[in-house]
């Protein structure tokens, strides 16, 4: 027989083996026997083993409960504490059922030692959280609240945590804790008292208890009792004054402790929102922190100022720091601080400073970090709409937004500007003229084409009197963009053309000819073909009166909540933007005139809004985009299945090509460029698209790349009426760099939800770092189950080397000088495509620009040849690339300092031009 010492020794070894990752299926009985020992160390090891290894259904659990009950009734405080710690560590429903009535007796008993009370409070807190339905008898709550007066720091600290949990269950019953908490806080803060003066942390008395008490008080409105409220105000005033005192220690722990108490006090001041002096003083103190050398302190100051900006008392005080906040937005190194600065500018905006703030945010957007651009675009759009006194300024702002950050302007933004222009006659002519001028720019984003097409189709007649914007000029300008756009935009432009037939009868023959072209009339895209056929018939068959009725100007949109607000709420809900301590002060925030109230009253009528954003535009939401009169008659009901993939004009198309180009079939293994089908090749130069789609699931892709870093958002949409379960995704990338022996790509695929509800969409994030150049394409394997059984899909992700390529401008002498230097063997790769390719110069330039290379004009003497340059960014080096594409025999020549880069870029160019 082993004695207690050896049992303890071997149980320790078994515990160590388990912690190393090995399964243990023996030794449990010996560990339970250690609980019967009268030696503290042996009992301690037994409880440690039980807490770590024993599960709820273990056959020895009843015996363990019996031993715990014996130790709880022991006269030894050490044994009682061990039992309480074990109950808290295991913390299951059975423990709550067995000991839920015994532990409170230990907490409120006058004979219990301080250490037992402390452990009992924490143990009850654990049981209340894991099994609240088992803890129904809370008669001991009033006596637990009086533990706030306990002289022991550990007891009162653990009691505050327990009381906070009790408040969540029954706030009224715990309301008596407010005066006790205020009194205890006053004794801690005021120097004339000696309460817990022995518990100082770098000259700050019990900072953690002070923080907990301040947080506890945020669960209730300001005290109604005048005496209690005055005492609380004095405490907060004292905390603000102490920050101004000279530091008593040079060590960093001293200001950290003081600031912890300060920021929690400011949160309480914001929550109360009833004392103007305290709010202004808190704002001034935070303003001093905006230029502090500590990044964390600047971040916290910006976060708290966001909350202060929502108060009518401190809103003006926050505006005084506008220049400092703008400077932080532009100069801060940490992107999270810049994000908070943008949030604060949004919160502090009102009619007096709206144009200045919107202007600063627009100028920053050009260089903003890509992770915050989309959110900033939404905020600029909301502010411009809410505070637009002159709607011409609003139109200019949104169009500038599209120019600066077109890739990040969601459909909700351009839908909204269209709705406002339709609803306001005073701005229609100006909007038509402005979008016409914007479309004349050499580089025009596709969203600008959408806005221009819609507005000119409705109000182009208002500017037709000007020779520079005659009907013919309008049509030719829009049609020059037609072949460069995605199928979705082409569908909208076809609607614009048929509108022109009504506005400008002299263009009828030209437009009929366009609609009759095989590329439209017999398009592989179902929606383009359908519109061409129907619009052509409409223009030939019906009478002029019927045509004018069908194609008349759109009526004003009904007044509804702006869909941009709904998208911003979905992207950044309140729980992410505001600390939990301030949420209970929401009733006070209704007074403010800041931009946070934009959701209550929009300046202009809007569209249907939804709180669930479809970030890729795959149509998995209920947001209703603008529709033309010509399409209203054929729009299906909102509940129809074909509304699941919403078309850009709201016509209910289900054709996958209307949003992006999908794979015709999933791939089964890692693939190269030659394995890709013609539709998928378009994703080489496009940032988003549909990777796969069938009757059950739609998988979308959206990417952002900067230098050697990339971020891909995958979207999985459940198109069926039943949930998708057991969903999982995995990346396969087998290429190994011969020089480093490592993978060329560092792929970080974040977990995705395992269940996708019917007609819902879930995102998944993939972060990419390009270490060296690569040729293989990663493959995504997706498995899921539904009512039809288990399904496995595999298809390549459009991650190519050109995604990490950035354009490089240069003049003719520089280009030829570098071209001649790259003449060593292996530096040039030249391939000929053959004569099967159809040459469309503008289309090819568009594709090459989308691939990251910079088109260099006036370099090659032959005008149909294309010369371009770029820089391939990897973590190890940057490789310059020069390329020349000859149109006569479609020969592609690429030169760079690295042979593998030349071959890969040459293959990409040749492939995307197929």
From TrEMBL:
Residues 568-613 are annotated as: Disordered. InterPro entries: Adaptor_Complx_Large_Subunit, AP2_complex_asu, ARM-like, ARM-type_fold, Clathrin/coatomer_adapt-like_N, Clathrin_a-adaptin_app_sub_C, Clathrin_a/b/g-adaptin_app_Ig, Clathrin_app_Ig-like_sf. One of its GO terms (molecular function) is clathrin adaptor activity. Keywords: Coated pit, Endocytosis, Membrane, Protein transport, Transport. Residues 681-798 form the Clathrin adaptor alpha/beta/gamma-adaptin appendage Ig-like subdomain domain. Gene3D superfamilies: 2.60.40.1230, Leucine-rich Repeat Variant, TATA-Binding Protein. It is a peripheral membrane protein. GO terms for biological process: clathrin-dependent endocytosis; intracellular protein transport. Adaptins are components of the adaptor complexes which link clathrin to receptors in coated vesicles. Clathrin-associated protein complexes are believed to interact with the cytoplasmic tails of membrane proteins, leading to their selection and concentration. Belongs to the adaptor complexes large subunit family. This is AP-2 complex subunit alpha.
């Amino acid at each position: 027989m082993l004695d207690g010492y050896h049992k303890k020794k071997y149980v320790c070894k078994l515990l160590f083996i388990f912690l190393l990752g090995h399964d243990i299926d023996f030794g449990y009985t010996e560990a339970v026997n250690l609980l019967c020992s009268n030696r503290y160390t042996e009992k301690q090891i037994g409880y440690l083993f039980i807490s770590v290894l024993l599960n709820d259904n273990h056959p020895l659990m009843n015996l363990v409960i019996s031993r715990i009950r014996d130790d709880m009734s022991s006269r030894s405080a050490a044994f009682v504490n061990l039992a309480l710690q074990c109950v808290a560590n295991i913390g299951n429903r059975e423990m709550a059922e067995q000991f839920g009535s015994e532990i409170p007796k230990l907490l409120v008993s006058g004979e219990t030692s301080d250490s037992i009370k402390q452990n009992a409070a924490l143990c009850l807190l654990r049981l209340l959280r894991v099994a609240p339905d088992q803890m129904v008898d809370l008669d001991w709550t009033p006596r637990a609240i009086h533990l706030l007066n306990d002289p022991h720091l550990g007891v009162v600290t653990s009691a505050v945590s327990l009381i906070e949990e009790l408040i969540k269950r029954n706030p009224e019953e715990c309301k008596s804790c407010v005066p006790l908490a205020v009194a205890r806080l006053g004794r801690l803060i005021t120097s004339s008292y000696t309460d817990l003066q022995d518990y100082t942390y770098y000259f700050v008395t019990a900072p953690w208890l002070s923080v907990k008490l301040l947080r506890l008080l945020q669960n209730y409105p300001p005290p109604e009792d005048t005496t209690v409220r005055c005492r609380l105000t004095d405490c907060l005033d004292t905390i603000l004054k102490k920050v101004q005192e000279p530091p008593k220690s040079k060590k960093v722990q001293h200001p950290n402790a003081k600031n912890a108490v300060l920021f929690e006090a400011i949160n309480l001041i914001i929550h109360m929102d009833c004392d103007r002096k305290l709010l202004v003083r808190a704002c001034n103190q935070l303003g001093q922190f905006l230029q502090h050398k500590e990044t964390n302190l600047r971040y916290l100051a910006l976060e708290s100022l966001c909350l202060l900006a929502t108060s009518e008392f401190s809103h003006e005080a926050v505006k005084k720091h506008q220049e400092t906040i703008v400077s932080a937005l532009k100069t801060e190194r940490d992107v999270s601080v810049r994000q908070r600065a943008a949030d604060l500018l949004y919160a502090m905006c009102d009619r007096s400073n709206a144009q200045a703030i919107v202007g600063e945010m627009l100028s920053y957007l050009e260089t903003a970090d890509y992770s915050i651009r989309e959110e900033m675009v939404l905020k600029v759009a909301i502010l411009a709409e809410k505070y637009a006194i002159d709607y011409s300024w609003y139109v200019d702002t949104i169009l500038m937004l599209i120019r600066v950050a077109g890739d990040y302007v969601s459909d909700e933004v351009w839908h909204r500007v269209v709705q406002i222009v339709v609803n306001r006659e005073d701005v229609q002519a100006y909007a038509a003229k402005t979008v016409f001028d914007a479309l004349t720019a050499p580089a025009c984003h596709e969203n600008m084409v959408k806005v221009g097409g819609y507005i000119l189709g409705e109000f182009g007649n208002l500017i037709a009197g000007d020779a520079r914007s005659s009907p013919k000029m309008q049509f030719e300008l829009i049609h020059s963009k037609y072949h460069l756009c995605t199928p979705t935009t082409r569908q909208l432009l076809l609607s614009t053309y048929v509108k022109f037939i009504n506005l400008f009868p002299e263009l009828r023959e030209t437009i009929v000819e366009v609609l009759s072209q095989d590329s439209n009339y017999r398009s592989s895209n179902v929606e383009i073909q359908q519109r061409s056929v129907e619009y052509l018939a409409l223009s030939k068959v019906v009478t002029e009166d019927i045509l004018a009725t069908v194609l008349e100007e759109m009526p004003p949109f009904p007044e509804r909540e702006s869909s941009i607000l709904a998208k911003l709420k979905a992207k950044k809900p309140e729980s992410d933007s505001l600390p939990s301590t301030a949420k209970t002060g929401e009733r006070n925030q209704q007074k403010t005139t800041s931009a946070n109230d934009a959701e209550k009253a929009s300046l202009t009528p809007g569209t249907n809004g939804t709180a669930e954003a479809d970030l890729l535009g795959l149509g998995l939401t209920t947001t209703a985009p603008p529709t033309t009169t010509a399409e209203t008659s054929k729009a299906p009901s909102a509940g129809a299945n074909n509304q699941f993939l919403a078309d850009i004009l709201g016509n209910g198309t289900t054709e996958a090509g209307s949003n992006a180009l999908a794979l015709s079939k999933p791939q089964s293994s890692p693939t190269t460029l030659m394995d890709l089908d013609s539709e998928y090749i378009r994703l080489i130069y496009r940032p988003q698209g549909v990777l796969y789609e069938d009757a059950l699931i739609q998988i979308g892709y959206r990417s952002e790349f900067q230098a050697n870093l990339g971020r891909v958002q995958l979207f999985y949409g459940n198109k069926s009426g039943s949930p998708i379960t057991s969903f999982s995704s995995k990346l396969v990338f087998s290429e190994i760099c011969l020089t480093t022996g490592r993978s060329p790509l560092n792929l970080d695929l974040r977990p995705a939800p395992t269940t996708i509800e019917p007609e819902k969409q879930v995102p998944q994030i993939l972060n990419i770092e390009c270490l060296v150049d690569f040729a293989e394409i990663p493959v995504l394997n997706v498995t899921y189950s539904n009512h039809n059984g288990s399904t496995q899909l595999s298809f390549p992700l459009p991650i190519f080397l050109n995604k990490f390529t950035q354009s490089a401008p240069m003049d003719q002498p520089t280009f030829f000088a570098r071209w001649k230097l790259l003449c060593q063997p292996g530096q040039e790769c030249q391939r000929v495509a053959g004569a099967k390719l159809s040459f469309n110069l503008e289309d090819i330039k568009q594709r090459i620009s989308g691939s990251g290379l910079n088109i260099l004009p006036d370099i090659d003497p032959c005008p149909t040849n294309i010369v371009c340059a770029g820089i391939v960014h990897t973590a190890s080096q940057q490789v310059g690339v020069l390329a020349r594409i000859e149109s006569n025999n479609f020969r592609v020549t690429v030169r760079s300092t690295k042979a593998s880069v030349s071959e890969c870029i040459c293959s990409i160019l040749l492939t995307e031009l197929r």
